[in-house]
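Practice problem 4.
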């Protein structure tokens, strides 16, 4: 067999065991994952994340700036590109999270009851964010999920989760030139053009 041959993903006779969020956090603490390694846990599977491009990074920075006044007023906490704990087997890393101000341990991550809004910035990951991530967030009861669709320069807003069917009842698309306010903060509007570079 050549040195460059790859093994099949599924090998007969070998069982695959899902990881838990606590195991992944433990492995991260002891340095099992490299400092440049970007991974997330989705339903027990450790998944590699795509590299962050310039436009993606700019969008995350713009989201932080757009919500800075809200966080500065002590109404929420911003978690950019940080893990959120969605049960025992899922520890995804959305691009942006608005969470409540409840006292949290230093090593604790936001959980569904804390989370007001999750945002994924999508270019190459658009299909994943519309399917796997959407189902994961709806199943966890995340109240509002935005997909910042950089391919079409629009913001896709999903609200009213239905955990049983892992979907959202409401979906709307907002374009540049329009404003939007999170469900949890209806008095706080931002311009879509301000977060899409």
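Answer key:
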């Amino acid at each position: 067999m050549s040195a460059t041959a790859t093994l099949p993903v599924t090998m007969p006779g070998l069982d695959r065991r899902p990881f838990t969020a606590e195991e992944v956090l433990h492995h991260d603490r002891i340095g099992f994952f490299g400092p440049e390694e970007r991974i997330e846990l989705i339903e027990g599977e450790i998944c590699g994340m795509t590299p962050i491009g310039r436009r993606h990074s700019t969008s995350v920075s713009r989201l932080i700036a757009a919500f800075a006044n809200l966080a500065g007023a002590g109404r929420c906490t911003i978690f950019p590109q940080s893990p959120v704990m969605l049960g025992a087997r899922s520890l995804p890393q959305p691009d942006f999270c608005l969470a409540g101000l409840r006292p949290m341990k230093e090593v604790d991550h936001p959980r569904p009851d804390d989370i007001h809004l999750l945002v994924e910035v999508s270019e190459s990951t658009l299909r994943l964010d519309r399917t796997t991530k959407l189902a994961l967030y709806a199943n966890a009861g995340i109240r509002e999920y935005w997909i910042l669709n950089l391919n079409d320069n629009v913001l896709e807003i999903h609200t009213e989760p239905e955990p049983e069917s892992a979907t959202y009842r409401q979906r709307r698309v907002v374009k540049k030139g329009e404003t939007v306010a999170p469900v949890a903060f209806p008095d706080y509007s931002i311009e879509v053009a301000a977060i899409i570079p």
